Amino acid sequence: MSTKSPISAIDSGVGLHSPEVFRLLVDTVEDYAIFLLDPDGTVRSWNAGAERLKQYKADEIIGKHFSIFYTPHDLAMDKPGHELRTAGETGRFEDEGWRLRKDGSRFWANVVITRVRDENGNLIGFGKITRDLTDRRHEESRFRLLVESVLDYGIFSMDTGGHITSWNVGAQRIKGYTAEEVAGKHFSMFYTEEDRRGGLPEHVLRTATEQGHFEGEGWRVRKDGTRFWASIVVTALRDEDGVLYGFSKVTRDMSDRKALLEELKRHADELELRVQEREQSNAELEAFAYSVSHDLRAPLRAIGGFAEALLEDCAATLDQQGREYLDEIIKAVGRMNLLVQDLLEYGRISRINLQSVPVNLSDAVHDALRQLGNDHGGTLEVQVAPDIWVMAHQQALAQVIFNLLSNAVKFHKKDLSPEVTVRAEAYNGSIRLSVTDKGIGIASQHRERIWQVFERLHDREMFPGTGIGLAIVKRAITRMGGSCGLESQVGQGSTFWIELPLTEPETEKIDTND
Ligand code: ADP
């Protein structure tokens, strides 16, 4: 509140309790219009604030009726008369509304009219204090307009009992009711019969009252009876003293999202079913391949054995061509043996329990190197520190590394001996073991399929093999909780890598009885 220093009046020697000081104070207040009315509403005094707010000078207004400040609309409803009557009967009247300045412009006023009586209780007039709240009003109406125009959210307010007190266009759009249709109605009208019976609307208001707000999703009913999936937030509205005076409710129609999610879930379920079916048929096929391979071994051994016996015992009675045919049979038996062995190995790796334990990586690499032997005619460089431990199955890991090594030395360029490097490095909390060769490389379009059984890119004469080695690598590594991949450039070489979780060696158990 700014004043034209009443202190100077006090300084000038007037007593603090004198009515004169009080009058001076009121006179100089600028933020409030403070003036007196006689019992019929005629203006009897005028302060600086009243002059500033309403633009009348004291001599222009004193003696005039206070209804001069009211809009024609309020006058038509005899608002001034009503206000004085109420203040006369109850002692006080408070209101907010538009009032007029001298130039006819409006301001939003907060008005308090207080009854003034003499010692005998006779009404001698009214005190009137008016504040200009136009700025706040604009702020509020801007906010109200904003809320009212929001289309995507249904926003409405309720009294403490859940009866609707305001309604925006979003709410109308989502629920189908106009503001008139819902005014004063209970918000449970938007709930389904089941939810109403289950006491959900009461629960919502109770939770909002106790916890400040309630958030949830559920089915709600439109005016036309159709349902929509709503996401709602109900907030308790409290005044400065913390007294609850109502609730606000924001509703969003999530039906589209819900339908989308359901569709997605349906697809996911379907996919899961397909995967299950496929896994089952894969498992059946693998079991079949395993038993066929197993059963092939005996006749294969017989064919090989008899072919060799024929070559050794009856060589003299065979001509050159006959011996060549026998050589071919023996070679084919050898290839088929390899195939059967690899198939059995693939089946075994798929079925046995590959329980992972801490395995020393360097030991596994050296196991694989021993299996590989020295016949490859190339150079092998190993850069694997001796103290790296990974979670793996010892034997399966050695087999995986062996498969990668044997490919790396096999697919070398013609006339160049193999050069292979085995390296281990920490990678994203795992250990990545890579086998790099300077061989023929793999074109990018084949890099996916070579991990599948029987997928080979090269002529068997040039690069013998069964096409099962990488399938074993992938299956074993996946089952051990790791991953594998490759980088390659045609004509430059390839790097095949596997990744496994890094771990610590198992600490030896100390026998505490010693
Ligand atoms: P195999 O080696 O018995 O043919 P794999 O399953 O081990 O079967 O490999 C599948 C195919 O992937 C090979 O036939 C070959 O075409 C390709 N391949 C694998 N490793 C390499 C490599 N280091 N360099 C080039 N090609 C490779």
Helical segment tally?
A: 16
Rough shape? rod-shaped
N- and C-termini, Cα separation: 89 Å
Radius of gyration using CA atoms only: 47 Å
Question: What profile does the largest beta sheet have?
Answer: 7 strands, mixed
Total beta strands? 16
Uncertain segments of ≥5 residues (pLDDT<50)?
A: 1-14, 509-514
Mean pLDDT: 88
Name the helicity range.
40-55%
What tags apply to this protein structure?
16 helices, alpha+beta, about 525 residues, binds adenosine-5'-diphosphate, rod-shaped, five-stranded antiparallel beta sheet, disordered C terminus
Describe this structure in words.
The structure is a single chain. The chain is of the alpha+beta class and 514 residues long. Helix content is 42%, strand content 25%. The protein is built from 16 helices and 16 strands. Strands 10, 11, 12, 13, 14, 15 and 16 form a seven-stranded mixed β-sheet that branches. A five-stranded antiparallel β-sheet has the order 6-5-9-8-7, with helices on both faces. A four-stranded antiparallel β-sheet has the order 1-4-3-2, with helices on both faces. Strand 2 and strand 3 form a beta hairpin. Helix 12 packs antiparallel against helix 13 and helix 13 runs parallel beside helix 16. It is rod-shaped, with a radius of gyration of 47 Å. The N terminus and C terminus are likely disordered. The site of adenosine-5'-diphosphate has 21 residues, from helix 15 and helix 16.
